[in-house]
Amino acid sequence: MSPTFRIHEAVDESHLGADALTPLRDIVDDTRSDLTCRRISQWLARCVEHHDTCKAKANFTPTRVIAVGSSGDNQRLDGVVITNTWNFQRHCISIVLNSLAATIQDAIFVCRGLGIHFLWVDALCIIQDDGNDWLRESARMRLVYSNAYLTIVAHNAASSKEGFLGKQFFGQPSWQRRFCSNRARLQRKYHLRVGIVPFSLEMWQEFSKVEERGWTLQECILSPRLVHFTGLELVWECEQGPSLCECGHMMACGAAGQPTKTQFSQYGIDNITNQSWMRLVGDFTSRNLSRQSDRLIALSGLAEMVYARTNKTRTYLAGLWSSNLQEQLLWHSYNTQRSRPSPPTAPSWSWASLGTPIMWEGPWMELGLSQVEVHYDECFCNLLVQSNAFGAVTSGELAIEGFVQAVCVVTVEAPNSASSDAQESGLTFLGAPNGVRIFVFSDLSHAIDIQSANPRAQCWRGHCSSDGDGWCGKCRLSPEKWQEGRYYCLQVVANPIVGITVGTNFSGGPPIEELQFYFLLLERFSGSEDIFERVGMAGSECIDPRSWGLSQRSKSRKDKSGEDILPFFPDAEWKKIRIV
């Protein structure tokens, strides 16, 4: 690591008021020292006294907490049971301190130093081997974290077996050197020391283990106050104001390398949009979960908070929101997998049905034209726990009307593929009878249909010298391929490509624009006529079909604003389908 140096002026802290910026301080050398708790206490006291938005939102007490005792109680802890449901007899009366994981022991040390009497730790306060208790308590995560007095975030502990207290990187003497400077106009000598540049994204990711774990995303965003033990220096975050690192820097919202809470505060949970929600989902799915069945549960507290703060005007459907649902359906997977988890963790149209990181096409859809009609009164999810509308589901169904086209699906070996796994080295395309071929972001991997050396592979990859119907002699498919009736394409959104106008519509209609069309690739479900599963997402550019003439207008539909919806595929049929 190559440090960058800046010189800061030392500040006397005795005159600080509520609105003063955090002054330059020496960084604590070892967080096991009493100075650590004194520093956190200063941040905490200022927040408690002056920040109304950081106060607990409800009079809530967790089902179970741990009474940490005082610093003189070095042997045993009292287990405080708020209800009488704790049947975990081994820890019911007391806990031997040294029997706890190192991270929990360190958390107890911090609580005692701050004068905090009770600690909530999920590993101890939720009975891990009792499925019913785990489901019940995991549904209360929002209340636990949003009403916490303080949340301790241990970035530098890879697991609970590793403690988070100890030497800090920026607390080393080499980072604490002091310099002298004479200011003639003030006629006195100032002490200066080396300053530390704010965290870079690479530095934060290198030192932070928290950013790798799925559960910690909602924990950090929900908590009104957090103190981060990064291994570099201490960092403070709260609802009101930017995050503060120990050396005195203030991190503005939106900058790279920030703690999770500060990153997402730029959107404002009160006004969260589809775009910011799906960005949050993208972050969440890139993190690790020990059980894929926890995907919806580990985000349920955050979803519940969004629902509450948006006046309960949206319906939550397995990780998506009913407002502009069609746009949120256009996620795709970073990496394909062989199959969905068994038993299913979500319906196929939800990102939670897969165990891979996902991306979303939404940032380019501010001007998107919906190409479907969603029948929200017929959309539903079957909940695993009926009392938790934001948790795990067992199944779900969407009812949608739109243009549907029968297609074939072909997987071509990727050129110069280095993978030894044939199912992970293919490019999947959908093809329509008129010769249109579109690359597909597949949810699941497919066996290779065409090897890279086969001349047909070039056709599917976009180098086809087609005849009038869009097919050449090499790539033309047999009639049987079209009669399979296995795969279908649903036209979902058409998005104008900003700044591209192809020409003037001399018939008096709107200007001829270039549009980006987005589709869902569907597979017929168990032989049903109108029930499908999602298996991928695709996109293709096209001149606005509204300029194509009367032949297409015979199939046109009107959306709710009166705009024409025309089929991308000439033979597409407008129909109502169900996606499970």
UniProtKB/TrEMBL annotation:
Pfam families: HET. Residues 96-219 form the Heterokaryon incompatibility domain. PANTHER family: DOMAIN PROTEIN, PUTATIVE-RELATED (PTHR33112), HETEROKARYON INCOMPATIBILITY DOMAIN-CONTAINING PROTEIN (PTHR33112:SF16). This is Heterokaryon incompatibility domain-containing protein.
